[in-house]
């Protein structure tokens, strides 16, 4: 087990929000402690009242290793990877949208879809390498994780963070949380970067 404490100190998180000027909000997910309970998925669905078939926060199961020789101990493991929107520094979805319905907020870096402008063409879904934008057959528009912007603007954390039973998800400012993680010698950064999108969600494993 890693020496990295699964609980990020609350003072580190609080200090991260005090950074002056524009920020980039992020989720840090410590994969070592994620138990794959899907509580984050359920909390997100309840908070955002998403329709059937649309999940802003998915959890995928990843298998590693192999077991070919029955005379040897298995060298296999399974871990779980929560997959919210990455709120990228260079959002491929925003670049692909033909009607300008996707924007990245300057004050906190949250990427949002304006449902009043969206025409449901799904170009953003095809462009996103993480599968974040999803088509709502009910509303005929694209939807995705908003980092619970309606809660954040009230000084609250995203619903998935508050609900995580393993306390493995943390919400704060990207650079401050990255600095803290990098100072932990046992932490191993897990990259999900693809296509130069500069994802803002952090993973350690």
Features:
single chain; 205 residues; alpha+beta; Alpha-Beta Plaits; 3-stranded mixed β-sheet; two-stranded antiparallel ribbon; 7 helices; 9 strands; 22% helix; 21% strand; globular
Q: What's this entry about, in short?
A:
It contains seven helices and nine strands. It is α+β, with helices and mostly antiparallel strands. Strand 2 and strand 3 (75-83) form a beta hairpin.
DSSP strand content = 15-25%
The level-1 CATH class: Alpha Beta
Specify the helix fraction band. 10-25%
Mean pLDDT: 89
Distance between the termini: 10 Å
What is the alpha-carbon Rg in Å?
Answer: 18 Å
Order of strands side by side in the largest beta sheet? 8-1-9
CATH topology: Alpha-Beta Plaits
Report the CATH architecture: 2-Layer Sandwich
What is the chain-wise order of helices and strands? HEHEEHEEHEEHHEHE
Largest sheet: 3 strands, mixed
Q: Helical segment tally?
A: 7
β-strand number = 9
Morphology = globular
Low-pLDDT runs of 5+ residues are none
Query: Structural class per helix/strand content?
Result: alpha+beta
What does this structure look like?
A 3-stranded mixed beta sheet has the order 8-1-9. It has a two-stranded antiparallel ribbon with strand order 2-3. Strands 4-5 form a two-stranded antiparallel sheet. A hairpin with an 8-residue loop joins strand 2 (58-66) and strand 3 (75-83). The protein has helices at residues 10-16, 39-48, 92-96, 123-127, 149-152, 159-163, 174-183; strands at 25-30, 58-66, 75-83, 102-104, 111-113, 134-136, 141-143, 169-173, 202-204. The protein is of the alpha+beta class and 205 residues long. It has 7 helices and 9 strands, in the order αβαββαββαββααβαβ. It is globular, with a radius of gyration of 18 Å. The protein has a single domain (10-204), classed as 2-Layer Sandwich (Alpha-Beta Plaits).
């Amino acid at each position: 087990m890693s020496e990295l404490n699964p609980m990020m100190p609350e003072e580190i998180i609080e200090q991260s929000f005090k950074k002056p000027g524009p920020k980039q909000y992020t989720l840090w997910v410590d994969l070592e402690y994620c138990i794959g309970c899907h509580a984050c998925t359920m909390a997100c669905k309840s908070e955002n009242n998403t329709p059937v078939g649309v999940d802003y926060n998915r959890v995928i199961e990843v298998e590693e290793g192999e077991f070919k020789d029955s005379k040897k101990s298995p060298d296999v493991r399974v871990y779980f990877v929560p997959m919210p929107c990455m709120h990228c520094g260079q959002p491929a979805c925003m670049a692909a949208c033909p009607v300008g319905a996707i924007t990245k907020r300057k004050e906190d870096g949250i990427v949002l879809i304006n449902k009043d402008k969206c025409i449901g063409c799904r170009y953003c879904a095809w462009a996103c390498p993480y599968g974040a934008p999803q088509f709502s057959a009910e509303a005929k528009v694209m939807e995705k994780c908003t980092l619970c912007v309606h809660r954040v603007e009230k000084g609250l954390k995203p619903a998935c963070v508050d609900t995580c039973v393993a306390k493995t998800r943390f919400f704060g400012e990207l650079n401050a949380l990255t600095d803290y993680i990098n100072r932990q010698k046992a932490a191993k950064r897990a990259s999900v970067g693809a296509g130069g999108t500069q994802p803002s969600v952090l993973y350690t494993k």
